[in-house]
Write a structure and sequence with these properties.
With 251 residues, this protein is of the alpha/beta class. The mean pLDDT is 95. The protein has 9 helices and 7 strands, in the order αβαβαβαβαβαβαβαα. β1, α2 and β2 form a beta-alpha-beta unit. Bound molecules: zinc ion (ZN). Zinc ion (ZN) binds next to loops.
Length: 251
Amino acid sequence: MEEFAADREAVLTRALDAGVTAVVAIGGGAAPGTLDCGLAVARLAPAGGPKIWATAGIHPHESKDATDASIVELRALAADPAVIAIGEIGLDYHYDHSPRERQRELFSQQLALAAELRLPVSIHCREAWDEALALIAAAQLPAAGVLHCFTGGVGEATRVLDLGFLLSFSGLLTFPRSQEIREAAAFAPADRILVETDAPFLAPVPHRGRRNEPAYVAVTAARLAELRGWTVTRTAEQTADNFRRLFRRAE
Ligand SMILES: [Zn+2]
C-alpha cells in the first residue's frame, strides 16, 4: 500500500531485526491491470531482507469494480510461483462498499478458482459469518485456507475450524475490548493458528493508532504466547510451521 512507498526498505529491515523472516504481501485491486499489487511488492524485495510472498484476489470492497477480465487476470497471476494463495476474498457486510449480491458472486467465483488450482484462500469476513462459511463449505476446497484477522469468539472459531481452516490473529489480540478474540486464540488447536499484522491497519498496543508494520507482528505473537502459556520461541516456531503447512508453495 502507498503508506509504505517512502520507506519500504527500512520497514523490511526492521522486520528482519524483529525476527520476521517471511512476509505476505496481500493482493488487491479489481479492475484489469491492478490485481498484481502483491506480486509487485514481492518483486521489489531488497536482497538480504525477509522473503516476500504474495497473494492475489479481488477484495469484497472492490467487487463492484471487477469484470470477467479480472478473473482471467487473477488466473494468470496465480500461476506465478510467488503467489501462495488466493486472497483476500470474502464478504464485508459492515462497510458494504460493494453490493452484497455482487460480493457473493465474486467470492464464489474466486473460491471455485482456488479449488480448481488447489491453492489455499485468505478470507476476509466482516459481519457475514453465516453466508461466508456456507459459501466456503460449498466450494469443497482441497487446500483449505485461513480466516484472516479473526474477529470472532470461540463459537465462530469452532465453525471455522470445522471447515479445516486456520485462524489468523492480528493486533486486535492486544486491544482491551477483544476478550472474545483472546478466548478463541487460547482455545484453538496449536496447529491451526497464525499471526499477522494486517498492516498498515490494526497496530498492536503499544503502537495502536499508528501505521502498523511487519516488525510489530512480534508484539502480537508475544501476546499469543501469554494466552497459550507458551514461550515466544515456541509460538514463533509453531506459527511458522503452520504457515508452511497451509501455504505449500512457501515451503
Ligand atoms: Zn481483510
